[in-house]
């Protein structure tokens, strides 16, 4: 458990370093240098791509969902809380990030086999961070709950769940270590 703001700051610095290492191949492949806040938003929203690709293909309705998800970043939801921490040099602007997030999510969907393990590992680290920073949080506000809710929403809004998607999501949740949600 984190005891003070200095420990929290150090934990966050470690978290962003770990996530950059985990996603190194993706970030390198896409020539992306993201701020901490952009990286946090990217990891937080990445479960959408896991859910969309759970049946093995991306259809028109799912592409439309990606557009909707990407549009959230236009509404100012990108936090700046983490930008006071050390940042990589030459990172893209928030304006540029908002322009490319749809294409990045789409790229992930069409290349999920290459990046899935990285996404799952980065999500694991985010869930651990959330539990460390706020172990007493109401479950409804925990990142774990919100991620699962987001993934279920994608599946159920796409003409309902089918056995392929349901089985695949269970595999992903198992990989994330979810038994109690």
Give an overview in words.
The protein has 181 residues and is an all-alpha fold. It is globular. The chain has helices spanning 5-22, 24-29, 36-45, 47-52, 60-71, 94-110, 112-133, 143-157, 163-175. The relative contact order is 0.17. It is 66% helix and 0% strand. The protein has one domain (5-175).
Q: Helix count?
A: 9
Tally of structural domains: 1
Overall structural class, as computed from helix and strand content, comes to: mainly alpha
Uncertain regions spanning at least 5 consecutive residues:
none
Percent of residues in helices comes to: 55-70%
Based on CA atoms alone, the radius of gyration comes out at: 16 Å
Kindly state the number of beta strands.
Answer: 0
Q: Report the mean per-residue pLDDT as an integer.
A: 84
Reported for the largest beta sheet, the result is:
none
Question: In angstroms, what separates the terminal alpha carbons?
Answer: 22 Å
Report the order of strands and helices. Answer: HHHHHHHHH
Beta content comes to under 5%
Shape: globular
């Amino acid at each position: 458990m984190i005891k003070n703001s200095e420990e929290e700051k150090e934990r966050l610095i470690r978290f962003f370093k770990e996530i950059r290492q985990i996603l190194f191949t993706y970030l390198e492949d896409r020539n992306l240098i993201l701020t901490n806040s952009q990286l946090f938003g990217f990891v937080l929203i990445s479960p959408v791509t896991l859910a969309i690709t759970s049946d093995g293909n991306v259809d028109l309705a799912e592409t439309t969902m990606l557009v909707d998800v990407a549009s959230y970043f236009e509404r100012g939801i990108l936090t700046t809380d983490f930008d006071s921490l050390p940042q990589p040099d030459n990172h893209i602007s928030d304006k540029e990030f908002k322009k490319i997030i749809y294409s990045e999510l789409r790229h992930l969907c069409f290349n999920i086999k290459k990046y899935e393990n990285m996404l799952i590992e980065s999500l694991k680290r985010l869930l651990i961070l959330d539990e460390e920073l706020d172990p007493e949080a109401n479950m409804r506000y925990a990142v774990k709950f919100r991620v699962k809710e987001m993934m279920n929403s994608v599946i159920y809004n796409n003409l309902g769940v089918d056995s392929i998607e349901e089985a695949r999501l269970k595999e992903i949740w198992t990989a994330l270590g979810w038994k109690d949600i």
